[in-house]
């Protein structure tokens, strides 16, 4: 554990923001059969039984779509999902972003993309942190995966959450260790300074990073003092470099200037961009309200993570119970991220 990391030790019992308890009127009494306008009389014959409906056609054979939590219950979500089509692989999704937003990326640099594939998972209610943990778990847990329902149940049983919310990075680390059997390292003092190289090396190695931040209308990081606190999982990084190392990289055939680590080939680690080099590092992230990857400027994520200080007034007034650690959002989320590694992995 480095000096900028904190052991995941037990914290004081979380405080709760109580919800009001409105009086609920009893349900109305059902009318007696004698009060109905027509009396129910026994029938002396039986109606013919209709034939059973025909069996549905067998499902089409093909690749299974990505699992989207809540899809079965939401007709609107299902309709939107069907319009979008199949979930693209991580590298292809990022290439789509690069083509759409060419102006965001500096033309004086060459770019190296380190990308791990993650499935999509759409949250139901305030479960963004638990959904982000589930997505991260696909890089950490056995191939069969860990059901989201188990992660939610353990979080409730341990007192980490009431509605699915997670306002403590330390609790998230303990939950990850218990449910995924992985290593969890909590970094304090933000994504900048000495933590920056640790985070980038962690992502280059293919390990996931959990990040609390304020979510803007387009899901990107913003600054709302924690009022829009949200969770994302980062599964890769796009680095802008002056020169690509000779060993272990291949240029993309469609996008000149974009390089990928060559499969089954040892890669020479790239020289990380200086922290003062603006627009040279982008995090590859997913969160529970979209099934597409997003590329976020590293400094934008860093700044959003550093200003999570207040509990949302709208949540405080919505009548629900939320688990908030001692010291509030500032103590639980501000300037903190979680590095996750497989149990057998070393730093």
Descriptive overview:
- This protein is globular.
- The chain has a single domain (67-341), classed as Cathepsin B, Chain A, CATH 3.90.70.
- Strand 5 (209-215) and strand 6 form a beta hairpin.
- The termini are close together.
- The longest helix is centred in the middle third of the chain and has 12 residues, at 169-180.
- It is of the alpha+beta class and 347 residues long.
- The protein contains 9 helices and 13 strands.
- Helix content is 23%, strand content 18%.
- Residues 1-28 are annotated as: Disordered.
- It comes from Chinchilla lanigera (Long-tailed chinchilla).
- One of its GO terms (biological process) is protein processing.
- Keywords: Aminopeptidase, Hydrolase, Protease.
- Residues 15-28 have a biased composition (Pro residues).
> From N to C, what is the helix and strand string?
EEHHEHHHEHEEEEEEEHHEHE
- Give the N-to-C terminal Cα separation: 9 Å
Low-confidence stretches: 1-7, 19-24, 27-48, 56-86
Tally of helical segments: 9
Strand residue percentage: 15-25%
Apparent shape: globular
**What's the β-strand tally?**
13
By CATH, the topology is Cathepsin B, Chain A
Gyration radius, rounded? 25 Å
Category by helix and strand content: alpha+beta
- Mean pLDDT across all residues, rounded? 80
Sheet of most strands: 11 strands, mixed
Helix content: 10-25%
Number of domains: 1
| CATH-derived architecture | Alpha-Beta Complex
CATH class: Alpha Beta
List the helices and strands and how they pair.
Layout: E1 5-6, E2 15-17, H1 75-84, H2 90-100, E3 110-115, H3 128-137, H4 148-157, H5 169-180, E4 183-187, H6 194-204, E5 209-215, E6 221-222, E7 229-241, E8 249-251, E9 258-261, E10 281-286, E11 294-297, H7 298-305, H8 313-316, E12 322-324, H9 328-332, E13 337-341
Parallel strand pairs: 3-9
Antiparallel strand pairs: 1-4, 2-12, 3-7, 4-13, 5-6, 5-7, 5-13, 7-10, 8-9, 10-11
